[in-house]
Design goal:
The protein has helices at 25-37, 45-50, 56-67, 73-87, 95-104, 118-128, 151-160, 174-182; strands spanning 12-15, 22-23, 92-93, 110-113, 136-138, 167-171, 186-189. With 196 residues, the chain is α/β, with parallel strands linked by helices.
């Protein structure tokens, strides 16, 4: 099924990566649980999805505060990323979004706007064989304020040379939809794939 788009002529498509282009949220959750388990901590599925799009450092800091732990952010982040890379070959594309990428490639420029690291985004897109479709990547470390702040989307629009009002955002997370709206951009909500 192809996702319905809002009315309008859009001059650029901006995509979140995890859960939007790549059905990788189960792999991310497994990587989080395994990495945190080494520190005697857990991240329940409902909280994982509620916190989708938040920076890794913020998640670790909040979990430390909630559980009275002192997990080192850099060590947990590196371990989580390594575990995710091991699980990545089991991730697949989100069909409704891939159809739009196939259909619009070459007609409008594309950017990925993600809270994940550049290493994670390039690995995910590379695993699907579509990394070369994207004109620019805006990843963690490229901007100061994460979603729901509009900074990352506004940066992508500027790098593509397209006014924010002419951009269409594809997002699966509430924080991303909020960021797109704050940037003055139309958006498409990408539903989570049905499991089981």
């Amino acid at each position: 099924m192809i996702l319905p788009l809002p009315d309008g002529e859009f001059r650029a498509y901006l995509f979140d990566c995890d859960g939007t282009i790549v059905d990788s949220m189960p792999q991310h959750h497994t990587a989080w649980r395994r990495a945190l388990g080494e520190w005697g901590c857990d991240l329940p599925e409902d909280l994982f999805y509620a916190w989708a799009g938040r920076p890794v450092a913020d998640i670790v800091a909040d979990l430390n505060a909630r559980h009275g732990l002192a997990m080192p952010v850099d060590a947990v982040a590196a371990r989580r990323e390594a575990l995710y890379q091991e699980l990545l070959p089991t991730a697949t594309g989100v069909p409704g979004v891939l159809r739009h990428i196939d259909d619009a490639h070459g007609r409008v420029p594309f950017a990925v706007v993600s809270g994940s690291t550049r290493e994670s985004v390039t690995a995910s897109l590379g695993a699907l064989g579509i990394l070369d479709r994207f004109d620019t990547l805006v990843c963690a470390g490229d901007y100061a304020r994460p979603k729901p702040d509009p900074e990352a989307f506004l940066l992508a629009a500027r790098l593509l040379g397209v006014p924010p009002a002419d951009c269409l955002v594809f997002e699966d997370a509430d924080l991303g939809i909020q960021a797109a709206t704050a940037a003055g951009m139309a958006s498409v909500r990408v539903p989570q794939p049905r499991r089981g």
